[in-house]
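Sequence, please.
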């Protein structure tokens, strides 16, 4: 009985997640006919769920596309090498394990006691992007979800003075790869519950002993408190990213405030002229 109940729960979650992934793919034109999508599989709950959801959507998708799974073995001590190949063999899909010892490099370049995640992610990104370019991949799928996107928004605001999140689709910095985030509309709590129900063989990221970015941990806590106090707040925050009013922000590059005029001359006058004054009035 309990088993049936948990099966129903897992099916419902899968339907919900599938719907969210399908919507995100459609809204951002993430996958097109003929695409070769490379699913980056870290062994964490998000990437397992993403791979499974994409495989399930592929069966009924309106366009034909290929999926391959790629794992980067960064040679962290204790990395269980057989876990992912065993899991992927069971799925019967094309997969690649790229072996590169970024662990030693990161250890060498990051000072003792500092978090290694930033450098580690940059190396990982570079290697995966090169692999994609060399293997005819047209889209790189990353497992970031709605909550990652919201956290990034606040991280950038609080610590970087920028109104910038993590886009569901983007062109990589070197212009060679299109990155997609099919889980962009999925709540982390749903993915977590689904991963548990599916009993994925999770490989913990912290094998390397590094701490997660402490600022992100801090933001995560704040967001969790807000959501507890007012359920639905995170969804509202996420939806605000889809409903932006440049005229009600303060970025002069996004909106031409000089063009707004109450009948006077809206000629551009530099800040210095206003601050320091001058002997000539602009008429
Ligand atoms: S926890 Fe370790 S493996 Fe994971 S991103 Fe950070 S440095 Fe890399």
């Amino acid at each position: 009985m309990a088993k049936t109940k948990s099966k129903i729960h897992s099916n419902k979650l899968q339907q919900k997640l599938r719907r969210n992934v399908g919507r995100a793919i459609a809204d951002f034109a993430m996958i097109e006919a003929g695409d070769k999508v490379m699913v980056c599989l870290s062994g964490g709950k998000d990437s397992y769920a993403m791979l499974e959801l994409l495989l399930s959507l592929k069966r009924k998708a309106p366009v034909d596309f290929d999926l391959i799974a790629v794992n980067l073995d960064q040679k962290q001590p204790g990395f269980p090498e057989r876990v992912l190949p065993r899991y992927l063999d069971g799925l019967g899909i094309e997969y690649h394990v790229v072996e590169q010892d970024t662990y030693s490099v990161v250890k060498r370049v990051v000072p003792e006691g500092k978090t290694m995640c930033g450098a580690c992610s940059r190396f990982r990104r570079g290697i995966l992007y090169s692999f994609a370019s060399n293997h005819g991949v047209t889209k790189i799928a990353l497992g970031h979800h709605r909550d990652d996107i919201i956290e990034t928004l606040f991280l950038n605001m609080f610590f970087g003075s920028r109104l910038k999140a993590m886009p569901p689709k983007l062109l990589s910095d070197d212009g060679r790869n299109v990155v997609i985030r099919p889980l962009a509309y999925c709540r982390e709590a749903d993915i977590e519950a689904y991963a548990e129900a599916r009993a994925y063989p999770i490989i913990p990221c912290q094998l390397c002993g590094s701490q997660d970015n402490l600022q992100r941990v801090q933001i995560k806590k704040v967001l969790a408190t807000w959501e507890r106090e007012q359920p639905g707040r995170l969804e509202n925050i996420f939806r605000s990213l889809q409903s932006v009013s440049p005229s009600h922000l303060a970025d002069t590059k996004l909106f031409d405030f000089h063009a707004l005029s109450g009948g006077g001359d809206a000629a551009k006058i530099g800040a210095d002229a206003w601050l320091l004054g001058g002997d000539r009035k602009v008429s």
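The chain has one domain: 2-152+161-211.
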